[in-house]
Amino acid sequence: MSLLGLSLLAQTPLPSPLPEPDTAPPVPESTAPPPVPLDGPAMFKIAGFVICTLRGPTAVERVERAQARFADVVRTAAQPRFTVELSGNNGGAILYVNGKGLLDVTPADAAANGTGRVLPIAQIWAGRLRAVLASPSVLKQLFVFSGLPERFNFAGADYQRGTGAVSDFGRFATDGTRASGPDGRERIVFWDAQLPPPYTTVYLLNRFREFIPYNRQ
Length: 217
Description:
Layout lengths: L2 H9 L30 E5 L2 E6 L4 H18 L7 E6 L2 E6 L2 E6 L1 H6 L5 H16 L2 H8 L7 E4 L2 E5 L10 E2 L4 E3 L5 E3 L1 E3 L8 E5 L5 E6 L1
Antiparallel strand pairs: 1-2, 3-4, 4-5, 6-7, 7-13, 8-11, 9-10, 11-12, 12-13
């Protein structure tokens, strides 16, 4: 190569180097906690019938509280029947069963149902409650075991309550023998007259004069 060629080569600028790949660390994802989902909707049911649907962060807790209160109403009811009452206004209301507070109806409940007035929503729920609790089949379902112990001791053996009432068919008898449960209350015990003792199953009468089986453990 001539001296002139070397001189031109020396004067030609070198091409710029290719840019290095972007090695910057990735932008970290947000570490903020996700929004807490609302507990709901939660349905308050009696004997399988929906009385109301609650929404909001305390919906499940409120339904559980209402169910516990209703179970106490059934347990302490003197007779197998209910009265339903409503008190309050558009700022808040309370549903009562047999004079005991069952459920608070709040402005948030009204808003969840598309209104700013509490009382119309409370009246709807009270109406459903009255209709369900007036049903003879519901009353039987709720009170079938009411006032009866889960277990008791009879003739030296422990007996555990069965799952529902059974038909008599004219076979059940008693000589007036009584047994007491954990509540201390004595009840007349029946048995199948066609079977010899010791009895695998004995029976107590519920409030509807139905025979409830108890099985020996």
